[in-house]
Design goal:
By secondary structure, this protein is of the alpha/beta class. It is built from 11 helices and 10 strands. Bound molecules: ligand PBG. Ligand PBG binds next to loops.
Length: 349
């Protein structure tokens, strides 16, 4: 009988194995994990994690006043949609079997308080209504709930007299934004502004006004990241400076767990870690303790890097995409926001 594995390398004495290229081994391992990698069928049976189209969410951009979709130089293959092309692309995504879409709006006019965000006919709310109508029965329609696309200064909240982001005044704006988004029929609101108390503030007004079924996806551990660069082109960001007083310091792991724990206590239905690839440890920490589903956002810079390297012939594009998304799943994400959602879903089917 073979003794139970000890986890350390064991060897057995005995005659040399028959087929060797070097005239016979001098060492014969007893534990041979490679046995489980011998054939494609073996590898497939024993793979620990799989991707499924349903686990993917497609982030989309809709641009006010656009009659045609606009290509984005820093994100090849990603478009700022017109209302028509938004509907078409969402239908294509739904037909590919993905689980959800997440919408960002690009307004024509911005002001200090981000008025467009709370206008029922503002570009984001109009786009959400179109998505709910077009694909709302097939996929989860998610919104971005944040002011940065709508403020002329580009910050995620409103500013006080000293020009600092005013946390508590911003919460009131988020509450109004949440009600406007819930009224569109959006199923899940994505709170991405990193203001303290934002989940509780939004949950309170949703419940007060009868939107008890509208769920909250909390961007809990959202880091101040260089990997958002291409996204800022996509939403034509006007930001001067940075977001370091509200988004997290990339050095902090413990704090990621703290942010997620606070959002859970405030009533988050899903918690998220963002970006994905550089924060897999934080994702694993959150997934370990979260009683609710955990999401991760493979952000614009992660997309752009792989596209750029693949375009240069430096990496195998499809394998790199699959591996990058699978790695996020393995680290603990129940679902993943990725700009490749539709294409990847097509490969997985
Ligand atoms: C803020 C928001 C950002 C992203 C999603 N929501 C940008 C930021 O915080 O500066 C980035 C997404 C990406 O890079 O793909 N509303």
């Amino acid at each position: 009988m073979t003794p139970p594995s000890t986890g350390s390398t064991r060897t057995a004495a005995g005659p040399p194995a028959g087929r060797t290229g070097t005239g016979g081994p001098t060492v014969r391992p007893v534990d041979r994990p490679r046995r489980l990698r011998t054939t494609p069928a073996m590898r497939s049976l024993l793979s620990e994690h799989r991707l499924h189209p349903r686990d993917l969410v497609l982030p989309m951009f809709v641009k006010e006043g656009a009659s045609e979709p606009v290509a984005l130089g820093s994100m090849p293959g990603v478009l700022q949609h017109s209302m028509d092309s938004l509907r078409r692309a969402a239908t294509e995504a739904a037909e590919a079997g993905i689980g959800g879409v997440m919408l960002f709006g690009v307004p024509e006019v911005r002001d200090a308080v981000g008025s467009c965000a709370t206008d029922p006919d503002g570009i984001l709310n109009a786009g959400l209504r179109a998505l709910v109508e077009e694909v709302g029965d097939a996929v989860v329609v998610m919104s971005d709930l944040c002011l940065d696309e709508f403020t002329d200064h580009g910050h995620c909240g409103v500013l006080d007299d000293a020009g600092r982001v005013d946390n508590d005044a911003t919460l009131v704006r988020y509450q109004d934004m949440a009600l406007a988004q819930a009224a569109t029929g959006a199923h899940m609101l994505g709170l991405s502004g990193m203001m303290d108390g934002q989940v509780a503030a939004v949950r309170e007004v949703l419940d007060r006004d009868g939107y008890t079924d509208t769920s909250v996806l909390a961007y809990s551990a959202k880091y101040s990241s260089a990997f958002y660069g291409p996204f800022r082109d996509a939403v034509e960001s006007t930001l001067q400076g940075d977001r370091r007083t509200y988004q997290m310091d990339p050095a902090n792991r413990r704090e990621g767990l703290r942010e997620a724990t606070l959002d859970l206590a405030e009533g988050a239905d899903v918690v998220m870690v963002k970006p994905a690839m550089s924060y897999l440890d934080v994702l694993a920490d959150v997934a370990e303790v979260s009683p609710v589903p955990v999401a991760a956002y493979q952000v614009s810079g992660e997309y752009a890097m792989i596209e750029a390297a693949a375009a240069n012939g430096w990496i195998d594009r499809r394998r790199a995409i699959e591996e990058s998304v699978l790695g996020v799943r393995r680290a603990g994400a129940d679902f993943i926001l990725t700009y490749w959602a539709t294409e990847l879903a097509g490969w997985l089917r």
